[in-house]
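Fold this sequence, please.
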Amino acid sequence: MTNNRDEEIEKYLKHLQKEEEENEYEDDEDNRFRIETTTTNSIVERRTYGGNGKDFVIETLWRSGYVIVVDEPYLPDDYDPEVGIDILKLDTDIDDQDFTDGSSEFIFGDGFTIEEQEEIKSIYEDEDEEGLRELGYEFYVGEYCFFGKLKIEKVE
């Protein structure tokens, strides 16, 4: 008898959890905003990797793109279009993103030989982050910096 009761309780709790998750998702759907730049080549993505006692950055300049965030983003009063802003530092979560026509540059810290640099570039081109992990490098910090005038609009 206890087994049946426990199963019913577990089933009911799962149902409540599912309802809560659905309601949370619906709330997010109603409160999403698209942030994009109004000029081309105004988005810079920086991904920093570390391992083997060394760090390097892959910096990608994107021709265009946008992020969809949950909750209305508020730019600081002192937002400077020339300095830009790291979208990840806004008090909101990124729900979706899309960037087009990127051009990447590798920025290596001290201690990398030319051979190591070429190997990292080649592995990244062929195998992306998985290849970097196999070489002993892990992603540990990222930035999505948007520059210039920003267009922020509610997603319908």
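Residues 32-154 form one domain. The chain has two domains: 1-30, 32-154.
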